[in-house]
Amino acid sequence: EEWQGLDENVAHVPFSAERYSEAEMIQRSRMFYELLNKRRSVRFLSDEPVPREVIDNVIRTAGTSPSGAHTEPWTFVVVQDPHLKHKIREIVEEEEEINYKKRMGDRWVNDLKRLRTNWIKEYLDTAPYLILIFKQVYGRLPNGKKKTHYYNEISVSIACGILLSALQNAGLYTVTSTPLNCGPQLRALLQRPANEKLLLLLPVGYPKKDATVPALTRKPLEDIMVVM
Fold it and tell me: What range(s) does the Nitroreductase domain occupy (predicted)?
């Protein structure tokens, strides 16, 4: 196969990592769990401004994610313009209404009733930032030929998980949104190239003072871990 345009001889350098005592490892792992366990999907977001530098830093953090052959197949589109946010809302709500009424099916819609979700997405207007994460299904070499992006969806999904953790660490909240059938329209609106496909949409901000969340519980460790 044709060479993919990556450096053939990447220099390898010494690596040293900080080593913690067992007690500190236990403490750090517990504290990080307690921080992430406070993460909730919040649909009632304030329009209170968020420092742009925070957004820059959490996306830098997401960009530390591993990726297949280090292709880094992600694009994070940050939308703060009110008019553009409203256009996104119009696209999403139009498609989501069809999804709820026709495409998703009764079982899916009934499962969502207890969470009180619907096709009205006010947070797309009120959140100070929308972050749309696109996976690059392939890249381009300098000669214009396609460059394979191995495991692009898995790689970008890992980056999304790191981004959620970084937002929680910064005291910001979001709700993971995967609006069905909106990808092509949003890609066109944001003038993204044909090799990019929308994977996730995150409204980001502070919760409203009167925000509510469902009283859900998480599975205990013994239900999610198998030790062999």
Answer: 37-206
- Cα pseudo-dihedral 76, 82, 87, 90, rounded to 10: 110
Rounded to whole angstroms, the Cα distance separating 138 from 44 reads 36
- Residue 164 exposed, middle or buried by CB count within 10 Å (0-12, 13-18, 19+): buried
Classified by CATH at the fold level, domain 40-208 comes out as NADH Oxidase (3.40.109)
Query: In terms of Cα–Cα distance, which of 130, 117, 119 is closest to 82?
Result: 130
pTM of the model: 0.91
| pLDDT tens readout for residues 168-198 | 999 999 999 988 889 999 999 999 999 999 9
All structural domains of the chain with their residue ranges: 40-208
Helices 152-169, 52-62: axis angle to 10 degrees equals 140
Q: How far apart are CA 93 and CA 182, in angstroms?
A: 9
